[in-house]
Design a protein that fits this description.
Layout lengths: L7 H17 L15 E6 L4 H13 L3 E5 L5 H7 L1 H11 L2 E5 L3 H5 L9 E3 L7 H14 L8 E5 L4 H9 L6 E5 L7 H10 L3 E4 L2 H5 L4 E4 L14 E2 L1 H4 L7 E4 L8 E2 L1 H4 L6 H20 L3
Parallel strand pairs: 1-2, 1-3, 3-4, 5-6, 5-8, 6-7, 8-10, 9-11
Helix pairs in contact: 1-6, 1-12, 2-12, 3-4, 6-7, 6-12
């Protein structure tokens, strides 16, 4: 049976920890291997995302594999909905694994056809396991391999990365405090916390979310209006509320993330480049995990 990674629960606690440690152990994130030689990975993207496409393509190609990209152009979504049995039979024949991006992972879980290849969630509204694991690897590096007592803040709208960070609290001992803009419904966050049996502190303002944290995420800005945006930014002044030496991470692709003051974004306190490096590492380890039973 094919192994899928639609959420962190597909990996479980031991798998999540193992994958993070193995990813961190890759000496050079851009090293080349032949593990994916003669394997084809299909990238099925319901939304455009240049960073995700670049990262996944680099991971597969650097492991000797090939990629087939299907973006938003065309009628493939209607074809997949209306002719699932026929289309999946064809895809089963041609590809060795598939990355999904831009539509809820739970829809895939309810599919009618069993697939013979691994499916990896490359980012959905309800989860982004690869990003969460890569960001946890970043935090481990700067927390001396121990997340016990580490405080994480999130400022901005919800997205898949936030939901996977909530899910990750089952396995990694950090705490999480979240400030959502006024128009962003907090109920999905509360439901996710209840589903995984973890505690998420929802606060009212960016200042409260930054209070005492070791890591502060710039979340999504999809539900911010022009009047909110100046206040919902991560600035040097806001970082004074955080713990000494706190770091900033992007919780969304740059074009969709809330603003980060340019001086701060280019400073050593920003972990953007390390996030990119660790995402490449994690995707490589995910490919090993889905193809190797042991």
């Amino acid at each position: 049976m094919a192994r899928h990674v639609l959420s962190l629960q597909d990996l479980g606690e031991s798998g999540s920890w193992l994958l993070v440690q193995q990813a961190r152990g890759i000496p050079d994130a851009r090293s080349h291997t032949d593990f994916m030689t003669e394997r084809m990975a299909m990238l099925l993207f319901a939304q455009e995302s240049l960073p995700e496409r670049l990262c996944i393509t680099a991971a597969v190609r650097q492991m000797g594999g090939s990629t087939l990209y299907q973006g938003t152009v065309g009628e493939w979504r209607e074809e997949l909905d209306q002719h699932q049995h026929q289309l999946m039979g064809v895809i089963n024949y041609y590809v060795d694994c598939m990355y999904l991006y831009g539509f809820p992972a739970r829809i895939w879980e309810k599919r009618e056809v069993e697939v013979e290849f691994p499916v990896i969630n490359a980012g959905s509204p309800d989860g982004h396991p690869a990003h969460a694991l890569a960001d946890i690897a970043c935090m481990l590096k700067y927390s001396k391999d121990n997340l016990s007592g580490v405080r994480v803040g999130w400022i901005g709208c919800t997205n898949g990365t936030l939901f996977s960070l909530i899910e990750g609290m089952q396995y990694f001992p950090y705490s999480l405090q979240v400030a959502l803009p006024p128009r962003n419904d907090r109920e999905p966050v509360l439901r996710a916390a209840a589903r995984y049996g973890v505690k998420v502190d929802i606060v009212e303002t960016p200042e409260e979310a930054a209070g005492g944290v070791d890591y502060l995420f710039a979340g999504c800005r999809s539900e911010l209006d022009v009047h909110d945006e100046p206040h919902w930014r991560i600035t040097e002044k806001l970082m004074e509320k955080a713990a000494p030496g706190a770091h900033v991470l992007l919780g969304s692709q740059p074009i969709r993330a809330i603003g980060v003051e340019s001086g701060l974004a280019l400073s050593p306190r920003s972990l953007l480049l390390l996030q990119a490096e660790n995402r490449l590492r994690v995707h490589k380890r995910l490919l090993h995990w889905v193809f190797l039973e042991n």
